[in-house]
Design goal:
Structural class of chain A: alpha/beta
Number of helices of chain A: 33
Shape of chain B: globular
Number of helices of chain B: 2
CATH architecture of chain B: Roll
CATH class of the largest domain in chain A: Alpha Beta
Number of domains of chain A: 3
CATH topology of the largest domain in chain A: Rossmann fold
Largest sheet of chain A: 7 strands, mixed
CATH superfamily of chain B: Ferrous iron transport protein A (FeoA)
Structural class of chain B: alpha+beta
Helix content of chain B: 10-25%
Largest interface: A-B, 43 and 34 residues
CATH class of chain B: Mainly Beta
Distance between the termini of chain B: 5 Å
CATH superfamily of the largest domain in chain A: P-loop containing nucleotide triphosphate hydrolases
Number of strands of chain B: 6
Oligomer: heterodimer
Number of domains of chain B: 1
Amino acid sequence: MDVAEAGAPAATHAPSPAHVRGGGVLHVALVGNPNTGKSTLFNALTGMRQRVGNYSGVTVERVEGRYRDAEGRSVAVLDLPGTYSLSASSPDEEIALGVLVGRAEGVDTPDVVVVVVDAQNLERNLFLASQVLELGIPAVIALNQVDAALAAGIRVDPVELTLELGAPVVATVATKGEGLDLLKQAVNRAAALPPASRQFELPAEAAAALAPVEACLVRGGFKPQAAGMEALRLLAVTTIGAHLSHVQGLAEVVERARAEVEAAGLTPRSLEAEARYGWIADVVERVSTRTHTGKKSFTERVDAVALHRVWGPLVFVLLMTLVFQSIFTWAEPMIGWVETLFSALGGAVGGVLPEGDLRSLVVDGVIAGVGSVLVFLPQITILFLFIGILEDTGYMARAAFIMDRFMRSVGLHGRSFIPLLSGYACAVPGVMSTRTIENPKDRLATIMVLPLMSCSARIPVYTLLIGAFIPSITVAGILNLRGITLLAMYLLGTLTALGMAAVFKKTLLKGRARPLIMELPPYRLPSVRSLALSVSHRASMFLRKAGTVILSLSIVLWALATYPKTRPAPGATPAVAQEQQLANSVLGRMGHAIEPAVRPLGYDWKIGVGIVASLAAREVFVSTMGTIYGVGSADETSGDLRAKLQRERDPRTGALAYTPLVAVGLMVFYVYAMMCMSTVAVVVRETGGGRTGVKWAAFQFAYMLALAYGAAFIVYRGGLLLGFG
Amino acid sequence: MARPLSALEPGERGKVTAIGGDDDAVRRLMDLGLIRGTTLELVRRAPLGDPLEVRLRGFMLTLRRSEAEHITVE
């Protein structure tokens, strides 16, 4: 980083007319505490014109939008992650601070900052607001949720607050769109106003001790005012932050300042909080009145049940059952529609194109490949709708509160529970939903074990094998052996996921136990618009990113199964011709090639082909076996395929090729093996993308394959030794 | 009488006299307004006994027993 670049933030923050820069576009950043209605305000300002991406190098979501002001000028709005302070102690906070001081890669430094402040919670919200004001960027305070505050007996005077803070305050109700025009006007004028500054005094000794830190920051390119705020912040934090890595000699100066502050009998880590909250208490006293309504709030009454010792877990289990059931049952017909649509499309295109490789590529490769991605869409949509509702109503924090003790026993956080549970439906949305976990190591551990939860794509494999090889025997009077086998597969996956999480947290992802310090926000009605936006963001993110990877891999798989061409034997039925083609294709040869590797597990080359083909998606195993056995379009309930599997004999020994023991071993293999391109693609993306993401996904693939092979080996060989099979 | 926050009974209130423990946790608690002199109320414990729900400055906060042990109230 050279000197000219380092000086850039100071230059862009100079009080020049804001609209001059960036081709007439005014850049506005929205900052605020979580649960202040910040995103609702953002949606109300920008409507549907939004773009969701990531900040470079981190999986913090970057949401941008635009609006036109009364004079027709374009205003670009960046919705910064919700944060309680500028301490930069989480990735979210680091991004927020980085953007505000002009140090976030690839982000325009804002011309104006809108600080969203919840009128119901003025004290805590003013902590962040006053920190932002001290950075010296033109700022406007949106005093939001004034209606809810009034209902709770809290009245805040915006004019008084303007005078106290030295920055314009506009009262808003984002959910009803009230105050938006005034807010837009204030944003327009803010750039011309003198920047706000610190409104309270530090103890003289502390101010003196901080002066060298400020000087050091100014030399590093900070403008004097922002340096004052940064210096005070640095006194209390343990890590300096990536955005300051270019400032020479900062760590030493900060260390000296800390020692001096301590020598003066003050506590460095509580200095800022005590000074700032002390001042805020006085401000709140002067600008607001509070009439106690005396009765319990709606949230308190709901929580008396939802967090109750007995009713709380019951409500939680009921809600989770509802979510889980609906992912399965509601998605089922929609998955059917997608499948029908794509087979109709394939049929239509197949009717138009002439017979040959092109038709096969388009129908069996492209259309079938895209279809295999789109079948995930219903589950993703439903899961994210529920996660959105749980998040927006405020229940998600309660779920973490209830589950934290349990999840901590395997080294995870309460927030990991719902993503793991989602894994039963599909690992793809599960991995995507780990974004609600703040701590990167917990998040990574959750992602790493999530595909061990038996997802719905394993059901066809389980159903086929159980139906063919597990006898329908009644056990203990009421239970069926088939049902018990299915349950055992689910339990095996779940227990292994929890166990592996504990292993990862103790080894690879070892770190200090992170504190769970979390607000339980008041319950709110979710806004339909915000829900629709968040669901469509997730869905399109999945389609764009995973879709490209899966589409190309589908084409590769198609080619492997199609070439080289085999001329069908004279008089062969189409089914037999198809079987011969597959057996001689590259894919078929790969099946033969891996036969020595899968022999110890009791599999022949046919299962080898099934495993290779289903690397892309587990359920492909069933249709591949159908092709090999010439059953045509097989599915898991196909009695024909089951019968053929049962009768199959080893050509060398003449004994039955597949026994119940082989089937159980194969199911265990599918419990553990990471055979899903969509999940791999999403894991690459969610673990940082690029080389880092590929590294994590490869590691995950490898460890799961090792588990799968090892467990299947133990089941099969152990079973033989015990005389089964 | 000074005692750790974790020893309060649901419904009991106290005034913070000292905060200790892990730097990150302390920093976060202070950002949220949990500093010396703040009045806290222990609202409830989670069904499994941990974490705790605490009311301060008009909002609800959860923290684990391990953090609450380092917060002294009276």
